[in-house]
Specification:
elongated; binds calcium ion; about 80 residues; Immunoglobulin-like; about 30% strand
């Protein structure tokens, strides 16, 4: 975790939805990343999907990426976001 001592973060975002994982590109050396990646999740049955896990990590060269923050987007919010009944 190199961002504690003056250098900035190299954030990327991991999504886990319906057991399908996707991630954004790494944006280097910032605390104010703006992600423009588009994520597509091919879901077989929207009635059976669960919550979406969202994890932000700091990419680190030569060591494990560190978790910066996380959130869970619950199924009702996903349905509303997708304008589903
Ligand atoms: Ca880093």
């Amino acid at each position: 975790m190199d961002w504690l001592w003056g250098s900035k973060c190299d954030p990327f975002v991991l999504f886990d939805f319906d057991e399908k994982k996707s991630k954004t590109e790494v944006i280097k050396n910032t605390f104010d990343a703006k992600f423009t990646d588009e994520m597509f999740f091919d879901v077989e049955n929207v009635e059976e999907v669960g919550d979406m896990s969202i994890i932000v990590k700091d990419w680190d060269f030569g060591s494990s990426d560190q978790v910066v923050g996380s959130a869970m987007l619950p199924k009702p919010d996903i349905r509303e976001f997708l304008s589903l009944p």
